Amino acid sequence: MYHSVAYEPYSQITDKDAGQWLTSIDYEDGHGEHYNSNPFNPSHMNMRMPPANTVSRNKNGYLPYRTPKDRLARLVSPLDTAQNKVILTEGKILYEIYCDHCHGVKGEGDGKVATGVTIKGVEHSGYGGVANLKGDAYKDITEGHIFHVITMGKGLMQSHGSQVAVEDRWKIARYVKALQK
Fold first, then answer.
1. For the chain, is the Cβ count within 10 Å smaller at the N or the C terminus?
2. Residue of 109, 93, 90 whose CA lies nearest to 101
3. How would you label 130-147 residue by residue, b for 16+ Cβ within 10 Å and e otherwise?
4. What was the pLDDT predicted at 60?
5. HSE on the CB side for 177, CA within 13 Å?
C-alpha cells in the first residue's frame, strides 16, 4: 500500500535522518519519515514564500470579498451597465441553476424546496421560510446587498460563495433586481 508523506510548505526539515526510527518504508534515498526538503528547489523548500503585500486575484482582477455588513450600501456592481442585456440573459441562466429550486422561477419563494414535491407518489415536504424576493421586505435592497447574501448567506440561506464565481454572483444580483420590477 502506498504511503504518502505530508509536506509542510513553510517549514523545512533538512536532516535526512529525522524520523528514521519511525520509518517503516524503505525510501530509495534512505531518508527518515520527517525529512521534507525539496532537493529540486534552490532553497530546498517545498513552496516559496509569496512576495510581500500580494493578494491572489481571479481572472478579472477582483480582490477576495471581505466587505462587512455596515458597508453594503456602498457595495456597487463592477459589471458594465452598457452590457445589461447580456448580463441579464446570463443572470437568468445562473438564477435557474442556483436559485429557482428554492426561490421559484419568478422569485416568489415558491420553488420545489420551499413548497415540497411529490416524486413517484411519495410526498416530500417543503422547507418553510424561503425568501419571497418580490416581497416588500426585499424590494429596496441593493445589488450589493443581494451579492453579499449570496456570498455570505443570511438567515436560512447558507453561503454560496464557494459554489458561485464572483462575476456570476453579480449577474444573479442584477437579474434578481430585474425580477423584482
1. N
2. 109
3. bbbbbeeebeebbbbbbb
4. 66
5. 18
Q: For the chain, which residues make up each domain, given as ranges? A: 1-51, 69-179
For 68-100, write each residue's pLDDT tens digit: 666 766 788 889 889 999 999 999 999 999 999
Question: Where do we find the cell 486575484?
Answer: 57
Cβ–Cβ < 8 Å for 110, 135: no
Cα separation, 107 vs 2, in Å, equals: 51
Residue 157, SS3? strand
Find out whether 175 and 92 touch, Cβ atoms under 8 Å: yes
The enclosing H or E element of 45 equals none
Nearest residue to 47 via CA among 14, 9, 11, 13: 9
Helices (H) and strands (E) in the chain, counts: 5, 2
From the centroid of its chain, how far is CA 25? 39
DSSP string, 87-142: HHHHHHHHHHHHTHHHH-TTSSS-SHHHH-EEETTEEE---S----TTSTTTTT--
CATH topology of domain 69-179: Cytochrome Bc1 Complex; Chain D, domain 2 (1.10.760)
